[in-house]
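Internal ticket #5521
Category: modeling
Description: The requester needs a full-assembly model to guide mutagenesis choices. All entity lines are attached below as received. Residue total reported by intake: 696.
Assigned to: D.W.
Attached entities:
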Amino acid sequence: MKIVVDAMGGDNAPRCNVEGAIEAVRELGVEVVLVGQGDLILSQLQDLGCDAPPPGIEIVHTSEVVTAEDNPATAFREKKDSSLTVGLELVKNGKADAFVSAGPTGALLSAATLITKRIRGIRRAAMAPLLPTGNGGSILIDCGATAECTPEYLLQFAYMGSYYAEHILGRPEPRVGLLNIGAEEGKGTELQKQTYALLKEAGKAGRIHFVGNVEAREAILGAVDVIVCDGYSGNILLKTMEGTALYLTGEMKQMFKKNALTKLAALLVSDGLGHLKSMLDSREVGGTALVGISRPVFKAHGSSDGYAIKNAIAQAAKYVSSGIIESITDNIEYMRLPTSGEEKGAEA
Amino acid sequence: MKIVVDAMGGDNAPRCNVEGAIEAVRELGVEVVLVGQGDLILSQLQDLGCDAPPPGIEIVHTSEVVTAEDNPATAFREKKDSSLTVGLELVKNGKADAFVSAGPTGALLSAATLITKRIRGIRRAAMAPLLPTGNGGSILIDCGATAECTPEYLLQFAYMGSYYAEHILGRPEPRVGLLNIGAEEGKGTELQKQTYALLKEAGKAGRIHFVGNVEAREAILGAVDVIVCDGYSGNILLKTMEGTALYLTGEMKQMFKKNALTKLAALLVSDGLGHLKSMLDSREVGGTALVGISRPVFKAHGSSDGYAIKNAIAQAAKYVSSGIIESITDNIEYMRLPTSGEEKGAEA
């Protein structure tokens, strides 16, 4: 299996990207194509003790870099010789199996949609991170790829999230919940009401295991395997979770740093603190899938270090061998509304 | 000052409502009218050692109780002799200054809107809880009263939230942020984009201190004093915060309970743990204002105990003397859009 890594994306590029690639080749047995400025990549390899690319690592030189300053919608077209564009072309043309980037989300999403394209029939792509919830992790779909959604998009997110939980988390009959402000049917805005009806129907037909509305509190505590929502709400949920965890762990740090006795306490629970820290560490998962794109594309966190990049590559490799893209493709007819032809114009 | 307490609302009614009322009279120097089933209230008072209502406590008997099973939109009308309806009528008719209820939110909101009415010109009421954020607390407006919003509603929420922070939290120039999925102008859905323009204009005119979009993560860490959003998103934020805090404190409990040494650690940081616990304890604030209603109405948590009810009464008392309703009324012309006449039908 061959994974393309955007060597120029992220705050710590290309150093950490190169580190992550080397570790991935060593630990996961995958091949990695590093796409980016060749001289910079080579000098990083040298710093890491490799005079030439080690076995399993290939370099594809590109001269341009997409940054947060570029227009996300057009960056890939304006910078044709960027690691983003060239990397995605490699995957599109079947020269590699997946693309991993820690570069700007918007530019990655536009480029993935327009170069590798969405799966035929999928209206919008979704970002589906694995949240550290009470049941050992839940898929949140979407968390910001598509801020404004229709009921049909959410129906598709529900199916795709369900396949993700099944194929990649190994949950045989994933519980799918619609994020809402109350558990009862009829809660929420028009979007939730209409989506509820579609998901209920899909559930009755036995195609997904729809368990109804789920409130954010219960979702975090682990009530469902898949949390379905529009990208705006999903982003609020994800970022609130991050903020609250940061805030509370900050307060805990203060508590333990207070004096000699509290510092002793920290030592006594150091195992537990390590567990808490790793549970909340976004580097452990490393990457978030752009679900609905016809080829595996992963977004790594902008602040990724080598460990995070390696884990993002591992996630991408899992995605490649999971069969999720095939499952979505095979079931696309259930995921389209009869009226959805109207929207075709929006797909361009 | 006279505060009406719905003696029948909440999971622990009427016991905790009576307890909270007695404590409030004692500690806050307010008078309380307990509205509900007279015999039940009297027997609770007896249990608490009072053979007759103590000075400062008055009982108004009602025969009916609004429950979660009632239709929220019509309960107050169907049960005219309920504590909800009679209590709000007392406030409407000027016989008391504020109403506090731990009963069902939807029924309270409908009843407050239709009995005490909204402030003239206010399109929708909002629930504005005080969140325990990094800057010592921020107002979240709305958190579920109005799930679906227009830019005008959010403009009004921004003003009302700003007055709240100013008058009740004592922040002289409250920073108002629009909850969004990115900090830059132009982020989010149509609702956020249009609202941004309105808030920017209000900010330029010096009427609110609008600091732009705020992401949920930064909002929790305390970047703003007022978080403006539609009720659906606000509810997601509030419940995610609750869920994450519950989940993490649960994990912490496990960590400290593990063995004799970790239990010792818990003792060594018991002060800090107490602080954390009280920081996250919704009972400390006790009640959430229904902002935009023409008279002070407070929702207490359904699971309130006497301490929470007392604190909700304290919040209501603060609200009464704050002058916030007058500030909203005096500035209503800035809070209306020229086109807003169209929506009048929706106000019924």
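Resolution: model delivered.
Comment from assignee: Chain A touches chain B through 56 residues (CB under 8 Å).
Ticket closed.
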